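> tool_call: predict_assembly(chains=two)
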Amino acid sequence: MSNLEKYNAAFVEAFEIREDQLAGLKYQDITAWDSVGHMTLIASLEEAFDIMMDTDDIIDFNSYEKGKEILSKEEYGVDF
Amino acid sequence: MKIVDAVWERRNLGVSTQEVTIEHQDVIEDIMDTIKCLTAQYQVIKIPTGMIQAMWSLEDNGFRYVETVINVTYDLSQISLPEHFKRINNVIEYCPMGSDDMEQMYDEIRNGMFNTDRVAIDPTFSIDQASDRYTGWLHDEESRGTPFYKYVYKNKTVGFFALKKITEKTFYPFLAGIYNEYRRTPIGAVYLYKPLLEAKRLGGKTVSTYVSLNNFGAIRVHVDYGFVFKESYCVFVKHGESKC
């Protein structure tokens, strides 16, 4: 499974949405992506990529696209 | 049944307002006799969930459903933070607000910080009226000496909460919110926890507050924290011509 597939799978599983809904998705755009859903998503991503995210990055992670940008940072090393 | 002339709402909303709170033991005939005598421009009826016949009678008399409100409580002897919120909690602090902080809070409210309450979602009113209602309410609380607190993240104020003591051991965190710049972040995950900590620090045993089903995100967080749902009521409203 590619990193993008893992990334998408975490969203699909955490929010019970379809993959074609992910582009442009932002925090609170859907009911499931609230603070509770957000931490479920973060836990899935940390497990999928075997990383521990910095809390400031967890707070900044406010969209599907922003999440990719954060995980691409050197300390996480996830290439998409 | 309790009937209140909500005189403060004339200042807040610019209309005369009467609020009726119906209790389980009230019979339909008495309820209808009472509501037919209401004269205010804005009439608000709070009725326990489940009193369907009375609700249908309210609808027959021109009242419209606007929200369901749930009273929730929290036992402070069991205080704990859901595991997944601990990391967020560790970077958010809280402290009492000063006068500059109060001004910032009022500015945020005037900019439409609260948009799910029964006034904000009522097309007869406007967001400006809803905001005026909050600022009027909070000015009243401020003048009564109610303490206000701010949430701080990286030395920036990101929101506020207000907490009232309602009995010897019970505290009522009656309003809390995250400022616009941070609303689309998970900081809201801990907006409930800080009032619990403060209530406990002040000697409280229980926290009691209200949450509207129109704010589903807030419901989810209260469930996640383990608040106990105590009782609920539906709110019906009617807008009429001024008769006073």
